[in-house]
Amino acid sequence: MDTYDYIIVGAGSAGAAVAHRLSENPANKVLLLEAGAPSNPWSPIPMGGGKLLYNPAANWLYKSEPEASTAGRQLHVARGKLLGGSSAINGNAFVRGQAQDYDHWAQLGNRGWSYADVLPVFKKMESYESGGDDTYRGRGGPIRVTNPDHSDPVFATIIAAAGQVGIRHNPDYNGAKQDGIAMSQATIFKGKRQSTAHCYLDPIRNRSNLRIETFALGESLILEGSRCVGVRYSVRGEKREAGAGREVIVSGGTINSPQLLELSGIGQAERLRALGIEVKHELNGVGENLRDHFAPRTRWGIGTKGITYNDRARGLGMAWQALRYGLTRKGFLSNVAAPLRAFVFSREGLEAPDLLLGWVPMLLELTPKGPIISKQSGMTCYAHPMRPESKGHIHVTSADPGRPPAISFNFLSAPIDAELTVRAVRIAQSVMHAPAMKPFNVTEIAPGQDRRTDAEIIDWVKAAAETTYHPVGTCKMGSDPMAVVDARLRVHGIAGLRVADASIMPTLMSGNTNAPSIMIGEKAAAMILEDAA
Ligand SMILES: Cc1cc2nc3c(=O)[nH]c(=O)nc-3n(C[C@H](O)[C@H](O)[C@H](O)COP(=O)(O)OP(=O)(O)OC[C@H]3O[C@@H](n4cnc5c(N)ncnc54)[C@H](O)[C@@H]3O)c2cc1C
Hints:
The chain is α/β, with parallel strands linked by helices.
């Protein structure tokens, strides 16, 4: 059995950052295990993410359990399965969340996670050269963040429409204040996706103290009493083991991290016993506290020609876009998936916005093979509460590491989530019906004029909404009985074991989850090194 100082399971947004920082010191021998492939040709192309959404070569392709809140549908739960993890297939929007999100985590008892604590980490990890205030923005970090192409007039029109319904223009939602409408900041540089594989791993491939193994599925943790001493894994079916002299860091993401703990006998005793898994350590929070953004996509017909990508990126239009991208790295294929977003207040008197709207200047049809650009010209605007209170869970259904866990979201179980979802949809409607939109000859396709009451809108949400692929919380950080890790991300009751990824978030923060996951990876590495000193 090979032995390392540190073994990291999962090379995603967080895991790649952990591996980069731990291996900076040549004295640390580090093994990074990744279940997926080293790369995929669609990944570096920003809009290539659409080609990976339903692609088993780069995606775990999970499905949620059917439930009442989804009108019995099973939702597609996309998760990146390659170096870079979900950062290598995502929509490239770069959003940190609000100061209040992190202050709330600290208030819950998580010392070291207030906004004042995490701001330096956010600054350290990014290189943002498109503006912003140095108090809030970093200039020399590994992740390149840029403002995408602003030249398309469609965005200026929507910004003007938002202004007419009281939503201000705020060019830097990652700065002092989040509220307002803005072009999405993006993990895209010179037309290329800035995944954590590209930014954190590519530059350090030649470090002799770092071994990166791909197609390596972590199957269980090796525990000696209450200490984790290594990992059992398989590479294309061949069983292997590696020892960890110092620590194992689980960074498999919100679906897979609790799965790995449960497969290793860490979790709810009754549940594990029923599956024939030997209970090594009872920890009731493992797999609980699942949260995600349940986001209805409002759909709009655009009667004026040439405005949307339905007119400009289908057939010959797509051939032109591909040529343009190939020659200049510009145009449709270099875009962030939702180029425009608004952080808005559901009502007056709130300290910070609680709803998110995101615009995609085209209509898409979801097919079993993935999204295709619709023949009809139009726009999509998703609209949802940012800090949902409904909680679901993820649990293994078998002792077989190859079997997907059961994912139950339990969306809309907290009444406030339904109320705020309706409010978000109504604000999207008010923007799209604002006078500035008139030249576009807008018609409402969905929810549509025939769905007017709150109950009608919620029925439509249940039948049509998808997530925005932001699951968090299943290895919650905290000190209460349902917490899985403490504020230094150490698994309660097991030495030598941490979790570092989106699963440790106690609550879903206000926005997208890639930047916070990278921050968690950076912060985890800093704490691990501090604790080893
Ligand atoms: C389609 C899509 C679009 C998104 N769009 C955006 C966006 O525009 N902006 C944004 O901020 N966020 C977006 N997100 C969310 C964001 O990308 C994720 O929240 C973030 O990447 C999660 O980071 P993580 O480190 O927790 O997990 P991941 O990045 O998912 O990494 C987990 C890694 O661990 C590996 N792994 C899992 N289990 C094992 C195992 N047992 N053994 C070995 N390896 C394992 C996985 O293959 C994966 O590489 C999107 C996500 C998806 C899927």
